[in-house]
Structures are given as C-alpha cells and as structure tokens.
TrEMBL record:
SMART domains the record matches: CA
Pfam families xref list: Cadherin
CDD domains linked to this entry: Cadherin_repeat (cd11304)
Protein name from the UniProt record: Neural-cadherin
A molecular-function term among this protein's GO annotations: beta-catenin binding
Gene3D superfamilies: Cadherins
Domain (Cadherin): residue spans on this chain: 121-230, 231-327
Gene from which this protein is expressed: CadN
Amino acid sequence: MQPLPPALFFLLLSCYCVGRVLSSGPADVPVLRVSVPHDAYPGYCITRLHYWGQAFSLLDNESSRLFAVLGDGLLMPTADLSHLADSPPLTLVVKEESQNGTREQMVVVHVVDRNRLVRFTQETYTGSVYENEPVGTVVEGLDRLFATSDPHHPMVYTFVSGNEEDAFSIVQPASNLSTALLIRTNRVLDREQQEVYDLVIRATDVEEANSADASVTIVVDNLNDNAPVPDRTVYEFRIPEDLEMYSIVGNVSAYDADGDRPVYHLVSRHPVFAIIPKTGQILLIATPELKTYKLSIRTQDTAKPPRVSAPFSVYIEVYSEELLPESEMDSSLETNEVLPVRQKRSVRPTKSYEYKETDGSKPGKVMFQLDKKHPQETYKMEGPVKWVEVDSSGDVKVKEPWDYEQLGKEKTIDFWVFVTGPNIN
C-alpha cells in the first residue's frame, strides 16, 4: 500500500471509531459487522481491530480496493463510498500474521445513509425510582429515552456498563417509531446502599450493525418512612389579656427522621389563634377571654407520600395583670411564657404569592407592593435575601434572576420585613 500523505495521517490520529457487532462465519471464522456513514471521508475510522503485535492485511476481493487496514488494526475507507449507500453489505477478509501463525477474520461493512444512523434523542438522561419499591417498578423520567434509525429494522437495547448487581432490566420496545424505552427494577433497591446508578445503554440496528450509546443516570429517591415527631407532647403558654393583635404567643417544633421540613396545622380552625405553617409560630388573631384555651395541632412533612403526626396539645392561659399577686408580677417567667410587658412590635398576617420562574427574570422588576396601613410607614428587610429586595416605600423587587433549580426544597422565597411608622399594628 502506498504511504499515506501527512494530512491524511493527521485525520487518522483524531478519528472516531464506530460500534461493531461480532458473530461467527463459515468454518468458525469470526465475523465482525460494522457500519459506516455514506459520506465518510477517506481515512475515517470505521473500527479498530484488536491489536496484540500481529501484522494486518486485506485479502484481495472486489471490495478490498475501497478499504485499507493500518498496522495498529485501524480499518478505514480509501475512496468515496456514497454510491454504495443502502447497497448490500461489503465483505472484507482481514489476514492476521504473528509468530503463532496466521488467522483470518471476516469484516462485513454496511454503508448507511447518515440520516438513518442510530442516534439517541439526547446524549444523557436522568430518571428516578423510590427505594423499597417492588421488583418490576418502572424508572420515572425517561419518557424521551429512545434511539432513531430505519423504522423497518429491529432495534435491540443492551446495558454496556453501570448495571451494578443486575439492578435493572430493559423492556424492548415493540417498534422503532419513537417508542420510549422502559427500564424496570430487577430487585428491591436501598438508597442507603447506593443512591445513584450511572448506566451506559447501547441501541443496535441488528440488520446494519449500526449502534449508538447514551448515558443514563438513575437516582434512588428516599422513601418517606417517618412522620415528624413534635419535640413535646404538650405545650403550655401564658399571655396577658391585653397582648397586641398578631403578637407571637409561642412556638412549636418537630423533628423528621427523613430530614424533611415539617409544616404545622391546627386540627380545626380557631377563632382566636392561628399558626404559621412553615415556622410553627402561634399568633393571636382576635381579642382573647380570661380563660385557658386548648389547641390541637398536627405536623406533617412535604415528602412523598406525606406523613402526618398524631395530634398534640397546646394550652394557652390568658391572665389579667390586675389580678396577679405582686410576687408573681415580679418573678421571672418560665421558658415559653410571654412576658407581660406591653410591646410596640406586632406581627401582621403572612402574605403568599405565586409566580413562575420567568416572572422574576429581570432585576429591578417590582413584583408587588406591601400593604400600607399609614402613608408614613417605611419598610426594611430583616436580613439580605439573594432573590428579592424591599425598598423603603414597600416595593418588593427582583434582586437576581430567579433560578428554580437553586431554590430550596420548598421552592419558595421567604423573608421578613420590619415596618416602622406611627400607630403600627
């Protein structure tokens, strides 16, 4: 064979080798089936034969003039193949010579129109499945997992790597017409043992030995096993009868063993008290009577499926300072009791708004204005928040473009605002 020009040799160094399929031919001669796009240039890497020091050569036949095999086993075209698109496959015989003797290998080359080459709709995919689900559970989030090729040719999908301990199996689609591939669990998965599986899946057009690979990441999600547990089974608070409206009476809290954030609800609506779901703070929302109130509260998590705690009790005693003995007035109160001191600070009802991610794409955009009860009121945020800012007039503005993926698990932007001015309530 004539020496390759330097420019062509450079192409060979950076070539990409396509997939291949092995079978056997007459008299146990191994058969390698490969595909090459019809517009492949001379020097394109069709495949690379296994090299262990032997010498390669092509036996002469009517197809061998179109190809060459290099000393390291690289098989390439040496001429234009476009006229052979969709023609019957070409057969090459590769001779391998070594100190141990000579052997032959058959290579069947399919010249395929590039538009009909196997390709996945994406290079990477991500799916998820909950731990402890029964065998046969379908991995979610893989609706676009399929490869395209000639719709009349059978397609076979296989795992190339990453299927640890045979954790998953593939359900072969009934047709090649954009039918999504199903991946099922082969065993009950445990997130504590393995949280993520990084798989490589290969799609092969059997008739043309044409294949493509895709990366699939499967995340094993935590199954919500535990309901939140309140830190106490009974809470007790005391408040003066003249406590300002919307003052905080006390706070309840809970722990979730799965790491989820508990939210809090009254078992039934109460005319005098309310609870902030995210914080567990109990607010005074109406004038109380001189008596002891009993509230029943539940806490639940936000995971799937949600778990709800058993109800726990909160007792709130309302007292009159005029009726208290002087000794009790002077003594310090226990933890969780509200000091009987008239304060100027109060808490207004929590406001909630719903927006799309795109609504907050422009910094400086005013999303809403805080309600003013007096024209001289001014506003200041309790602390800096990445996504929003509040000016002194009460305009809530976009600070940085909102990114849904960077928000916390609750997908909310929470902040407190201090209000100052005359007759604040």
